Amino acid sequence: MEDIRSRLGNRIRVLRKELKLSQEALALKAGLDRTYVASIECGNRNVSILNIERITAALNISLTDFFDTDEFATIPNFISLNKVADKSGKKYK
Questions:
Q1: What is the 3-state secondary structure (H, E, C) of the chain?
Q2: How far is CA 34 from the centre of its chain?
Q3: What is the DSSP letter of 22?
Q4: pLDDT tens for the 93 residues of the chain, in order
Q5: Pair 7, 72: CB distance under 8 Å
Q6: 0.85 exceeded by the pTM?
Q7: In contact, 13 and 42? CB cutoff 8 Å
Q8: Other CB atoms closer than 10 Å to residue 37's CB: what's the count?
Q9: What's residue 93's pLDDT?
């Protein structure tokens, strides 16, 4: 099984290329350094959720849609963001 960091990096690379963005352009939109984005795409970084949120915003995709792929479906104990609810039963998206 591919490392989660590699899956994350591959997903970012695919979405970035679909938008025809360079690593530098994505980094600027996300407020990150280009070399940091490159190391994420190579699977060399353990990225914080805050930076994942910045990147997904720069890619114009929600966190839910970002992780709602076959790549992430096989992660053990993965909790769908659509199914997380607080004590009142309110679901988060």
A1: CCCHHHHHHHHHHHHHHHCCCCHHHHHHHHCCCHHHHHHHHCCCCCCCHHHHHHHHHHCCCCHHHHHCCHHHHCCCCCCCHHHCECCCCCECC
A2: 16
A3: -
A4: 578 999 999 999 999 999 999 999 999 999 999 999 999 999 999 999 999 999 999 999 999 999 998 888 776 555 555 555 455 555 544
A5: yes
A6: no
A7: no
A8: 28
A9: 46
Asked whether 30 and 57 are in contact (CB, 8 A), the reply is yes
**Token digits of residue 89:** 């039963």
Structural contact between residues 85 and 91, judged by C-beta atoms closer than 8 angstroms: yes
78: Cβ contacts below 8 Å, ≥ 6 apart: 67, 72
Token digits for 68? Answer: 């709602």
The Cα–Cα gap between 3 and 90 comes to 32
The residue type found at 21 is L
